[in-house]
Write a structure and sequence with these properties.
Helix content is 78%, strand content 0%. It has helices at residues 18-36, 40-45, 50-113. It is elongated and about 95 Å long.
């Protein structure tokens, strides 16, 4: 079993232009369907009509994929924006604390010298 246990950490997943990749693949499947459509009779005579319908199924699944990756991309962008907003709030709070502590130190020094 030890030989199947990974010895190193898994790499980070690759992120790229996912939406455009899925759109391009979907368009390609639909173009393949349209290119084979004029030869439907030839495919039917040989019992290979599945060659025509397979690209149409790929295009249909690609439409579902486009819907999915657009939602995923929007969710990732919302998460990144919320994370950036939380970080900026934390930085502002830390800066306000630092300013308040500095103000307290200077006002405390003034009282002791008077």
């Amino acid at each position: 079993m030890e030989k199947w246990t990974p010895k190193h950490e898994a790499p980070e997943p690759l992120e790229g232009p996912v939406v455009s990749t899925i759109v391009g693949g979907t368009v390609l499947w639909f173009v393949l369907f349209l290119a084979q459509l004029p030869f439907y009779g030839w495919f039917a005579d040989r019992g290979h009509t599945w060659w025509v319908w397979t690209p149409l199924a790929g295009a249909g699944l690609g439409l579902i994929g486009i819907w999915y990756v657009r939602g995923r991309d929007a969710a990732l962008k919302r998460h990144a924006a919320a994370q950036a907003e939380a970080e900026s709030r934390a930085e502002a709070a830390a800066e306000a604390r630092t300013d308040a502590q500095a103000e307290a130190r200077t006002s405390g020094v003034d009282r002791h010298t008077a």
